[in-house]
Amino acid sequence: VQLVESGGGLVQPGGSLRLSCAASGFAFSSFAMKWYRQAPGKERELVAFISSGGGTTTYADSVKGRFTINRDNARNTVYLQMNSLKAEDTAVYYCNAVSRMGNYWGQGTQVTVSS
Asked: Which of 50, 89, 99, 105 makes an SS bond possible with 31, Cβ 3.0 to 4.6 Å?
């Protein structure tokens, strides 16, 4: 089982990034997917959720209207489009796959928002 995040980096405030999480080794289309983030000294925070079929999405209030989660079950990949980034979005971002069959985590990708 693997979840590999990519797309993180350094971006200026107001900029955009798109994170990707490529899955392998399990039935991706049967799993709900989540993006979490963890800033230094803070607890891990749920940022976004998408159901297995993609029909349901939810967001943390702090990112609502700025972030969009979507998935491509044919490519076994989930994405997080992040727009209007703020300094407080700086964190390590993790993808998480969850179902009754398992709970899997990626290794994380760093997002730094700074001028």
From this structure: 99
